[in-house]
Design goal:
- The complex is a heterodimer.
- By secondary structure, chain A is mainly alpha-helical.
- Chain A folds into two domains: 1-48, no CATH class; 55-234, Cytochrome Bc1 Complex, Chain C, CATH 1.20.810.
- Chain A has helices spanning 3-13, 15-20, 29-38, 56-59, 62-81, 91-100, 105-132, 141-163, 168-181, 188-196, 203-234, and one strand at 48-50.
- In chain A, α5 (62-81) packs antiparallel against α7, α6 packs across α7 (105-132) and α7 packs antiparallel against α8 (141-163).
- The relative contact order of chain A is 0.10.
- Chain B is mostly helical.
- Chain B is 44% helix and 2% strand.
- Chain B has helices at residues 23-27, 60-85, 110-116, 121-142, 156-178, 189-192, and one strand at residues 57-59.
- In chain B, α3 crosses α4 and α3 crosses α5 (156-178).
- The longest helix of chain B is centred in the middle third of the chain and has 26 residues, at 60-85.
- The chains are: A mainly alpha, B mainly alpha.
- The interface between A and B is large, with 90 and 74 residues.
- β1 (48-50) of chain A pairs antiparallel with β1 of chain B, so a sheet runs across the interface.
Chain lengths: 242, 198
Amino acid sequence: MSFLERVDQSIRRSPVFRSIFRNPYPNDERSRAYAVMNNVFLHLHPVRVRQHAVKFAYTFCLGGLSFFLFLVLTVTGVYLMFFYAPTANQAYTDILRIQSEVPFGLLTRNIHRWAAHLMVFFVFLHMMRVFYHGAYKPPREFNWVVGVVLLFLTLFLSFTGYLLPWDQIAYWAITIGSNMAGYAPLFNTPSKILLLAGLEVSGNTLLRFYVLHIMVFPLVGAIFMAVHFWRIRKDGGISGPL
Amino acid sequence: MTDTKSPPERRVVLPVDPTRRTEIDKQRVPMSARPYRLLALVKQDAVVRVQKEPDDTVMTWPHLLAIEFLAAAAMSVFLLFMGLIVNAPLEELANPNVTPEVAKAPWYFLGLQELLAYFHPTVAGALVPAFVLVGAALIPFVDRANPAAVRPSERKTAVVLFTLFCGLGLMVTFIGIFFRGPGYSFILPWVDGFFFTL
């Protein structure tokens, strides 16, 4: 037995390790079933899945990757929050500091940006995949509606985040985007005041978008995601092949 | 299982190339290859539990988890790569008094901005998005013709309408991204260049 194997063995046999992982590494069906059932992260899955569900070309992992991108965005976003203040005076200089002084700040901001665009794109693709498979048909109607809500939450997560760098792209993209809300009949001015905290994009808008971006939409999204994943299993698992 | 649909003469066990036999193939027992036949029916509430029939499922660990892990790992590598080589755009400080030459909404709202060029603002800015939101949510309650019809050939109307709608959305977004320049005027990207930041 080599040195590394002995270290590996002693870690696995230690009481601390065994208090965390109650079962040895799963090698047979029974222990694999337990591993999925008894793990808080894995128990999202059933113990067994239909064969077509594990074929990459059936789902293209689009829903799973959207969720993974959400997790990536949460981690990178929390890191960026440490170095960012949502005020009209400070926001832009904070972004410059994140890019130049903060360790891995530029990389984190880049990943956050690209993952955000990719998440919007993947949620769109996931919706199209589900439609073409007819996977919204009974008994999955309600889960489709939850999915539509999640699509719009994703769009507004991205839209609120777009303003935060407080540069010219951000300012004018949000001005144009929110002008459209002002075209709503009857409640145009109230809806604009509600969205922008004023009649045009200002420091108040920045604070409002920041709170929506880091707190409200992620929390509401997480709740809808929980319902979405729960309903996949309660509605009979992933839909059947064509 | 799908084998009920296939004609009887096709119900043979296809030999799997031994070199290409995967774990899934080993677990797979085609219904047509059952080496037994019906001898008696045992009541559900019998004391002895009846052996479960071979089905078409595989273990989540490792089959599904391996794919999920690979997809997440590939995505992580891709994001790291993108983050290293392409910087997120950042222009000068926001200035409400200076309208930039090219002012576009984020790409997912660019289709709506494009519609503003054709329709009354109330239509493009309020009615179309409301129609899309409510219409998308209502799809499963409108398309109730035949719940069993999932193949595209069995539900041509739904597939054609949805594809047309997605195609229109893609088209206006593409025009907004590539064919609109300073002052949101119509341009040709191969003549005037490219006016778009992600």
